[in-house]
Amino acid sequence: MQDARNDFDVVVLGAGTAGAAVAWMLARAGRRVALTDVRSFHAAGARWVNGVPPWMFDRAGIPRPEAPERRPGDGPFSLLGPSGRKHVTLSPSPVWSVDMRLLVRRLQRMAREAGVVPVERARLADVEVAGGRPRAIVLGVEGRGGSVRRRLTASLFIDASGLAAALRRRVPLLARDCPPPPRMHVCTAAQAICRVRDAEGARRFLDRYDARPGEVLGQVGVAGGYSTGNVAVASDFDEVDLLSGAIAGGASGMAILDAIRGREPWIGERVFGGASAIPIRRPYDRLSGPGVALIGNAACQVFGAHGSGIGVGLVAARLLADAVGAADDPGDAAATWAYQHAFHVELGGLLAGYDLGRRFSQNLSPDDVEALLSAGLLDARQYAAALDQRLPAVDLAGILQKPRAALRCPRLAARLGPVVARMPLILRLYRRHPERPDERALAWWSRGVARQFNELPDVAA
Ligand SMILES: Cc1cc2nc3c(=O)[nH]c(=O)nc-3n(C[C@H](O)[C@H](O)[C@H](O)COP(=O)(O)OP(=O)(O)OC[C@H]3O[C@@H](n4cnc5c(N)ncnc54)[C@H](O)[C@@H]3O)c2cc1C
Hints:
Elements: E1 7-13, H1 17-28, E2 33-36, E3 49-52, H2 54-60, E4 77-80, E5 86-90, E6 96-99, H3 100-113, E7 117-119, E8 122-130, E9 133-143, E10 146-159, H4 172-177, E11 186-196, H5 199-208, E12 216-220, E13 227-233, E14 239-247, H6 253-263, E15 267-279, E16 288-289, E17 292-294, H7 310-324, H8 333-362, H9 366-375, H10 380-387, H11 396-400, H12 403-408, H13 410-431, H14 439-453
Parallel strand pairs: 1-2, 1-10, 2-7, 4-12, 10-17
Antiparallel strand pairs: 3-6, 4-5, 8-9, 9-10, 11-14, 11-15, 12-13, 13-14, 16-17
Helix pairs in contact: 1-3, 1-7, 2-7, 7-8, 8-13, 13-14
Bound molecules: flavin-adenine dinucleotide.
Flavin-adenine dinucleotide binds next to helix 1, strand 3, strand 11, strand 15 and helix 7.
């Protein structure tokens, strides 16, 4: 007989932002929810500072961060080319700096207060699948006296375990259609808050870029097309915020960050931060199956243009909770499909469209990046939209109205044109994701998406 203490409506694997948020939302919808993590909860999820557009908290129905979770220093955001030349300044920055340690803790606290059962330091040992649907998971839970076996049953299992994708790899339908992203679609990133050792040195650094304290200097193309190294000196010259990222397999985010620290001796010791890999391919076409759903990094729900997954994961949590929260069986195929449909219609096209742009940028040399920015092919409005994770204000027609910019770098404009031209098609395609469970229609839709990316489809026919 099933032990009532281990029988839930929903079990969520991964207590980072996406997992803790969806656990909270589903408990608030009256579901019995367990939230598990392989780590202690206080070490779960992102442990660094992330930029998140505030609108995404509103869309997810999560109160916006306040200080100290929201960090000071939301000054202007400047885009620099590989040469160090400043091309665009957005003031104020459309994104808020958020201390992820505090956001994760807040979401976990909200989940506990809503009745979510926490299961920490729990290693997934087995997934029991019957009729293609997961029915139970077996965990090895670390305690003072060693590891204890615990078997949890549920109607719905949610994989929010990040790149580890603990459940996705073990549920046959998802393992087939959602393979781990290859290195070319993974970004390695590093972030650190460091002390300013020498305020004069920091001032000289800012003068070099005609920048002011609090301004984010985001230099792109530092190690190939898709790479960045950001530096923001706090207004009080106490701390400096460093962020870096690049495609896996080349210079790592950590190496870029170390290079910045090596070049700038005024940067002192690290206060906190972290480094990890981020999947940057478009979200999987299949985000769910009977009894199972993917969210967050496990679903590749990341705004690939700059590797941002926090806001998208939170909005995905809302869409999932709304789709399954009130269903008789939250793991029913129609309920989980409704989540997949809602996600792709609302955000899938946006993420896939920007993913095309990301793939384009990945093949650019640093000189190409500089030329593109110098020509004005990417302007402030487009850059602001990208940081804000929204559609650019200028569409294909707008781009075509930029003949002077295109004439300044015709070779790159000729390469960029077809990419931009595909974006409206992609947006339209994602709005047509099949509304009801229909495997043939999904495979057909998946083929259409794959064609835009010149790839094989995710979903097998
Ligand atoms: C340096 C850096 C900077 C970044 N900057 C930004 C930014 O500015 N803006 C932004 O939006 N995003 C940013 N990102 C990306 C963002 O941090 C991730 O997209 C986000 O953390 C993903 O959230 P998640 O909840 O899906 O997964 P995670 O945060 O990875 O959490 C997954 C959780 O699952 C747990 N887990 C793993 N395996 C198991 C298992 N078998 N069972 C149970 N639990 C398991 C892990 O311990 C972890 O706690 C950055 C990433 C890095 C590395």
